[in-house]
Amino acid sequence: MNNKIIYMGISLIITGYPSFSFAKNTQQPTKTDDKVVKFSRLKVSGAQKQTALVKALEKPGAFSAVGTENKLQSMDKIIRTMPGTYTQMDASQGAVSVNIRGLSGFGRVNMMVDGVTQSYYGISPSSYTHGQQPNNEFGALIDPNFIVKVEVEKGQLNGSNSINALAGSANFRTIGIDDVLLDHNLYGLRSKASWGDNGLGYNGMVAVAGKSQLNSEDGYIGGLIAVSGLNIPGSYKNGSGYNSEDFATDSTYKQKPQSQLTKLKFKPNDSHELEFSGRFFQNKLTRRKIDSEDYYLKYKYTPLNELIDFELLANHGKSKQQFEGDSLGWALREGKSENTADGINMFNTSRFSYGAVDYQWLAGSKLMKTKYQKEVSSVIDQDTLIYNPFSPSGTQDLISAYTQLEAKYDIYTATFDLNYTHYRLNGYKPACNETEKCFPQEEANLNLREGGFNPGLLLSAEVIPEFQPFVSYAHSMRAPNSQEVFYSQNGGQSMNPFLKGEKAQTWQIGFNSFRPDLVVEGDQFNLKALWFHTKIKDYITSKPYLLCRPRNDAEFEWCLMNDDVWDKEGPDIIQKSYIYTNDPRDVNLRGYELQANYDAGVFYSTVSYTKETGDQPNSIARMADFSAGDFTELPDYYLTLDTGVRLLDEKLKLGTMITWTGPSKRIGVESIVDNNGDALKDKYEKQPTVIDLYTDYEMNKNIKLMFTVNNITNENYSDALNRANSTAIMEERGKNNATARGRTYMLGGQVRF
């Protein structure tokens, strides 16, 4: 907390110290021979704006992006509007968890904030899970009020973003100095607030920023401070009027998270740029206190030399969870879980030409160190601390080198990617009891190591604007994490010292299409459509094992003859363990993705469609002790249509967002596994169409008002991949426990000066 105050104080001094030349609020017009040269105001219609969405649609490959600063929707809903991208919803975590093509978690999806990989592992006590065990999930602790853009890469390699990223990456960009300053002002303020009924509560954010120009015409020193707070009641009503406290929440879900963000930037000239950022998050949720702090230092060196474009990013982050009394269960007390992450990423980009070919060559290296540790006591005995999977502890080190070469000739572009990644995973394995057989038998410090090369290729051609095909291949890998290797449901006997990393091969074929003046003059149409197929080897999943420890021939025969020992009492030679293993079967994920955008200024429409099939096994640890991980299989298909009109010189926007979700699956009602040891899934029916209405009015460049009605028809349905809807429970599911909110009203506004 002291560091946070110091860094924010420095930012405040830099942005507001009176010796800085902030008196001149706007840049001066250009003078020639003592005459002022004035330029007419350029009017840009909505159809001509290069939004994050349009830029992603014009880029070859499976890229998606969305801006978030002018939306009242939740971050989950915003991310789910992108094809192939979903979220794991868990109201008890207070974090964002991105799902790409049915995969999620640290290593399967590289979640980043401002380019920094996130590795937070949330542990949320819950009274609604099977056996009243906590929920566990990887996520990013980021205040949605600070996010201005989300960028997603799927199935292809792209420099450092692809390190330890099996399915792809998602980067959340936070508000910066230039996002606050208006019309080239040297200082400014940006604020927004919103309120919603039906359990949404209110939230607000204020950001102030300033620049002071240096001697150099292009040099400046600047800073930003932003603070945000939310008040979330926690409980809500579904479409049938049932309160979520009857099936998914309780009083501990009420929360008031607070966040702070500070950025300092020093740019003496065009060649050097140095930026420091500190981001802080505090919350009390489900009987635990959460504190997180993240720092990064970024340096860019861009001299007037096409061969040098250097960037260095160093980061440090720490998150803590402190649990109340008996919140972790009947035996554990006063638990603490801590996660620290350090990293450094450096790379250089060179640009040159040879003959008729233009080249861009990137080379770099990325190092990451992630450590998980815990403190906990027991009211029973020391063995209880060993025989439970609360906050598995260990250290993961990643060392990588990567390169990317892009070659452009005429209408053709080829991008070659290659990285080498080596991981080391360390942690403590307790000794097995004398009556238990495991390897190694005694206590040991496990040290798992593995490395490999990961090549990738993306080919594209701009045949005509309406048809720009591309094809890509990528080999990716991810290291096992501490939560898998050191899962301690049965002490050392449930740990796997031979667990290997996952490897995936992904093919993608698609095309981009661009057409201006499609219907009327000045409009613009963009389309991206693709097919993908991912094959994963050594997929990591937990399975139940019934271990027999015979002491003589009679007991050995008893083990062989009793295949229903799950339900019978027998000699003290049976031990049940949940162990993470590499599944011998290949996992295949394939499907189609489409996104199109049409903008004519007065009218706009965006459609996003995903159709996917997957056969990933369902982990028993998701429904057993401490509910590790979550169900991640996407619905059969999902489609979002966002369309509307702009009136009053495009200052008033009226629109609707319609969501269709196909049949989905979830964890079985009871903890049952099939013959392969995979937890059974339940199918549930196609969900109703959900319609949202929204409007915003830009009164002037300083003030914008927004209003939204979600689920206007008050449908009763269940969100796919909502933890409350995909956890093993001991009752039938129906209208009384459908997890989604009923009709909800939201009102908000934004102020900029």
Itemize the secondary structure elements and their pairings.
Elements: H1 2-16, E1 31-32, E2 35-36, H2 52-58, E3 63-67, H3 75-79, E4 85-87, E5 98-100, E6 103-104, E7 109-113, E8 116-117, E9 120-124, E10 135-139, E11 147-154, E12 168-174, H4 177-180, E13 187-196, E14 201-213, E15 220-231, E16 258-267, E17 272-285, E18 288-301, E19 310-323, E20 332-354, E21 357-378, H5 382-386, E22 394-409, E23 412-429, E24 444-461, E25 468-478, H6 482-485, E26 489-492, E27 502-516, E28 524-537, E29 540-548, H7 553-561, E30 574-582, E31 587-599, E32 603-614, E33 637-647, E34 652-661, E35 664-667, E36 681-684, E37 690-698, E38 703-710, E39 744-752
Parallel strand pairs: 7-12
Antiparallel strand pairs: 1-2, 3-11, 4-5, 5-6, 7-8, 9-10, 11-12, 13-14, 13-39, 14-15, 15-16, 16-17, 17-18, 18-19, 19-20, 20-21, 21-22, 22-23, 23-24, 24-25, 25-27, 27-28, 28-31, 29-30, 31-32, 32-33, 33-34, 34-37, 35-36, 37-38, 38-39
